[in-house]
Amino acid sequence: STKTSLLVALENVQHFSAQRLGALLENVSGFVADKDFCLEMRPETSTAVVTLLKRIDAEEFVKLCAESNRLKKLKITAKLLEETHSIKAEIVPGGVSTDHIAACFENVSSGGGPVVDVQLLPEERSAITTFCSPKGKA
């Protein structure tokens, strides 16, 4: 079973810089960027991922965003992200072995962890890596 992580996805943020969005979230939530949360912009999907750095209730953070008239007006939505045991790596070079991919993702110094399985999807030039624990993801 999956459980809620300390990650929140913000959708429809394509018109914002990280600094401007961070300031907006500070106003909405009362939390401080880079102290209470960090923000990673994903321009290719018009989203941002908020990582809550302290013991902040992620559900409460999403609720504050949902109740914000400012975010409603800007059509920015927030939702909880669930922890997962698998990730998809894209643009995987042809001929790469599952052992090589597993070795890369098991590198603890890069945030990796024990890998249970690697499934190559050559037609998509991608691979799905499954970890023993949702904590072990690079």
UniProtKB/TrEMBL annotation:
Residue ranges of domain PARP14 second RRM in the record: 4-82
Domain of life: Eukaryota
A Pfam match: RRM_PARP14_3
Annotated protein name in UniProt: Poly [ADP-ribose] polymerase 14
